[in-house]
Amino acid sequence: MRNTPLHILFILILLNACTRESKNNSVLVSTDTIVHKKTIVVYETETVKVIKTPVIIDQTRVEKPITPEAPKPIQPVKRKKNPTKKIQPLPVYKFPTDTEYHYYSNKKISVKISPWKNEERSILLFDYDRNITYTFEDVRHSYSYFTELSYHPNGAVSIAVTHLNPGASMYWYETEIQFTEYNIPITKKSTQFPTELDNPPSIQYWNVQKKQWVDQLTIECQPPPQKQ
C-alpha cells in the first residue's frame, strides 16, 4: 500500500466509512454496486362522498320585501248624537156615536148614556124596577160639565164625579156623589178649586121622599121642664 496513490487511498477510506454506516441503515454495499433499500410509505386517505339533495323551498313562505305603506288619511271623529226623545202625540178621545148601556148582574139596565149631540149628552140611572133614580146633563160649550162613573160589582154606579169649569173664572168645581147598589144617591160633596179656608167643601144628603139634596139635618131639642 505504500505504492498506492493518494486518491485511491482516499476512496478506500470513504468506502470503509460508508460500509460502517450502512450496517445500521440496512444498506448493502459492495465494492462494485451500492444498493439502497427504499421504504415505501403508503398513506391511506378516506374518500368522502357528498350527496347533494335538492332543497324544496315553499314559495308561500317566501317573505316578500316590505314596502312602506302609504299613510292612512285621518278620518274625522264621529260624535255620538244625543238621542232625541220622541214626543208622543196627545191622545184623541173618541166618544161613542151610539147609545151606551150598562147592566145589572140580573141583565136589567143600570145606566143609559146618550151619544153627544150638539155638544150635549144625558146620563140616566135606573133602579131594579127600571125607575129613573138620577140624571146627569153633560155639556161642552164655553163652559163644560163632564161626569165620570165608577161601578159596584153588581153593575150599579158607586161614585159619580162631575167636573164643572165655568170658563171665564179662576175657579173650577168638583162634585162627588155616592150611590147605593140600586143607584140611589146617598151623599154629595162639592169642592171649589183652588181651595180656600173660608170656603170648605160642602156635604149634602139625598132626601128620598122629596128626591132632592138637603143640608145636614139638625134636631132642635126642647128644653127640659123647669121645676116649680
What would your notes on this structure say?
With 228 residues, the chain is mainly beta. It is built from one helix and twelve strands, in the order H-E-E-E-E-E-E-E-E-E-E-E-E. It is rod-shaped, with a radius of gyration of 71 Å. Mean pLDDT is 76; it is low at 24-31.
Q: In order across it, which strands form the biggest sheet?
A: 3-4-5-6-7-8-9-10-11-12
Residue-averaged pLDDT: 76
Question: Pairing-aware structural class of the strands and helices?
Answer: mainly beta
Q: Tell me the radius of gyration.
A: 71 Å
Shape designation: rod-shaped
Helix content estimate:
under 10%
Q: In short, what is this structure?
A:
The chain is mainly beta and 228 residues long. 8% of the residues lie in helices and 32% in strands. A hairpin with a 5-residue loop joins strand 5 (120-126) and strand 6.
Walk me through the topology.
Blueprint lengths: L5 H19 L3 E2 L4 E2 L64 E4 L5 E5 L6 E7 L5 E9 L3 E8 L5 E9 L6 E8 L5 E9 L8 E6 L4 E3 L14
Antiparallel strand pairs: 1-2, 3-4, 4-5, 5-6, 6-7, 7-8, 8-9, 9-10, 10-11, 11-12
Which characteristics define this entry?
1 helix, mainly beta, 10-stranded antiparallel β-sheet, 8% helix, 228 residues, two-stranded antiparallel sheet, rod-shaped, 12 strands
